[in-house]
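This section describes the prediction task in plain terms. A model, or a person checking by hand, is given the sequence of a single protein chain and must write out its three-dimensional structure as a string of tokens. No templates, partner chains or ligands are provided. The sample shown here is typical of the held-out split.
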Amino acid sequence: MKNHIPTSLFICFLLFTGGCANEDRNTAQPTDITQPSEAKNKPLVKSEKIMKAKIIEMQNDTILVADTEENSGLYQVFADALLGDISPISVGDMVEIGFDGSVLEIYPAIIANVDYIMLLEKGENFVGLYHDIFMKLYDTDTALNSDISFIALDLTKDKNLNDSEKNALLYLLWNTTQVETRLATYQDLLSENLITLDGNSDFAQLETGILFILETSEVEMENVTFTAEKWRSSLGAHCFNDCHAKKVNGEWHYEIGGEK
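The expected answer:
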């Protein structure tokens, strides 16, 4: 006995399969599954908290950033939350970080449960430049560093760092030298009796620390001029004079004009 398919059912089957075939033909298969960069660089979630920050350091899979809005300090964040192509991102850039508000209270603090890290704009790595300058000065005339317990930085005549970047610079210097760092001027240290004066000779001495003094120009055509001094006493100091820093291929390089 032969099985017969009812004519009406056979017609429905043809219509169904034909419709599927047409749907397959009319749906263009993507030639490039990569989404446009604009889409990839936009967060897909609405985060509980958003922080705008400057990248201070990038090491392996961790990024050190400084909060630039609330000046709340330094934070570590894992780089795997970066959106889009991360190759253009470098130290000094401004980023937006979306997270659930959780922070591990160590120093630097760790931002937990990150939703995304998004590049906002390219920026300047003055923190790295100043760190290199100060370390060059620190390693010059090292007898001035003898028996110090702290390093003071006078940045009152700098034109390029904001408060969060100054704190980041203090951290990097401490991390490199393992010597306590702080912001202070000569007058600050004098008022705290950390600088002593000889009443007869006006000889001044910072007995337990050194004072770094930096004076810079504003950026002009990717150039900065500066002087930097390491001061320990009226007779013990070292200075970099007539110095020049220039940005080349996205990185700052400096030359020392003279020393005394």
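For orientation: The chain has two domains: 45-121, 126-259.
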